[in-house]
Amino acid sequence: MVDGARLDRIVTGKNYSNLISNSTFFPKTITYAPYTIGALHAVFSGSYGHKTGVNSYWSTPKFKKDEYKTLSLYLQQNGYYTHADVINNLVLPKIGFDSFVVHDEENDDLTARHKLLLDDMKNKSDENKDFFLYLHYSNIHTGIMNEVLKKYDNFSEEYFSKKKENEKFYDGLFKKADVYLGDIISYCEKLGLNENSLIVVISDHGISIGEKIGERAYGVYCYDYTLISTALFNHHSLPHKITENQIRSVDLLPTILDILSIPIDSDYKQIDGKSLMPIIHGNHEERIAFSQSGNPLKNKQPPKEPNVFSIRTDKWKFISNIHNNTEELYNLQNDPTEENNLIDSNPEISSKLREEMNNILHEGKLS
Which parts of 192-307 fold into alpha helices (H)? Predict the structure, then answer.
């Protein structure tokens, strides 16, 4: 998982591009939450945070582990050794991990560290033990934290007035992430781990480089520069293709289980995600994506409950801002940077998407 990797950089990265050409790639993966805690709990549970309990920066302890089975627990119970190398203790549900280790994002060499973990997994493989290794590349986050989050607030004129400088800084961070990815994939190949493994590469959310005043990084609004993440599946059974269908981050868990022939556990609550295998094999179904965030406004900390919600189709984005009782509607095909709010000129579309959002929030059902 490459924390904070933007789609527009991923598709031009040298090592990313090489891997994309040999994988099934979903460039339009809509994250449930544009911040890591909410995003990854949704990935690992296949469900939205208002159901699982993790819908804010503060709610990791509220994860309903008895109601929502995690990817790691599925794999552990199917005989996999499970190991996570993470940025902190909050980003993932710990359920189902044999080993859960936090790295020092400021000082650790993640490439060297993760190669050693791959060596360990190779030994497991040689002993005919299946394994699940979660690697969290955190250095983009570290750079943004030190040079953006600690120096500016969400309304700093100095930050938003220098978009080109912001882009250049981000590009430097991303280039290192792309080199890391190339090193890790090459090392998997050197060890022969790619021959019979499912390799999944995701981003949790994007990062602002100054597009909208009020969000200097992520976790505030529900605009596409942070909502669009990516998902890549590399496995001998999968075609090499770029699939433009909109998918959701909650679809990743059921897809991984489908590829590994592990059935969904009916003893737990029904998940929101659906396997992507029908889309991979040519089905062009549209999947409506629900997302939420917590706009801190001028406060120094995000709110304890989400106050921004969005519904996204391939064409339209509807946003409900609870914090100031406003709504937004964007035609994403004609206005990909979400500049022209059409909420007053398209009442029928707004009404339909508003109803869809209410169904998800109040009935817990995704159409």
Answer: 224-227, 252-259, 277-280
In a domain, 28, yes or no: yes
Q: Is residue 298 part of a domain?
A: no
Read off the pTM.
0.96
Residue 306 lies in a domain: no
pLDDT (0 to 100) of residue 363: 60
H/E element holding 317?
strand 316-321
- The alpha carbon torsion through 269, 271, 272, 276 (nearest 10 deg) reads -160
Yes or no: say if 79 and 130 are a contact pair by the CB < 8 Å rule. Answer: yes
pLDDT above 50 for 15: yes
The number of CA neighbours under 13 Å toward the Cβ of 160 is 11
Total domain count for the chain? Answer: 1
C-beta pairs of 356-360 under 8 Å, 24+ apart in sequence: 356/288, 356/311, 357/290, 357/309, 357/310, 357/311, 357/318, 357/320, 360/48, 360/290, 360/311
Query: How many CB atoms are closer than 10 A to CB 340?
Result: 12
CA–CA dist 113, 83 (Å, integer) = 13
pLDDT bracket for residue 367 (50, 70, 90): very low
Residue type at 338 in one-letter notation: E
Structure letter (DSSP) for residue 251: G
Say if 226 falls within a structural domain.
yes
Q: What is the CATH number of the domain that holds 235?
A: 3.40.720.10
> From CA 56, how far away is CA 32, in angstroms rounded?
11
Q: Is residue 167 within 8 Å of residue 209, measured between CB atoms? A: yes
Under the phi-then-psi rule, with left for phi > 0, alpha for psi from -120 to 50, and beta for the rest, what region is 121?
alpha
Q: What is the pLDDT of residues 121-149, one digit of tens each?
A: 999 999 999 999 999 999 999 999 999 99
d(CA 119, CA 57): 34
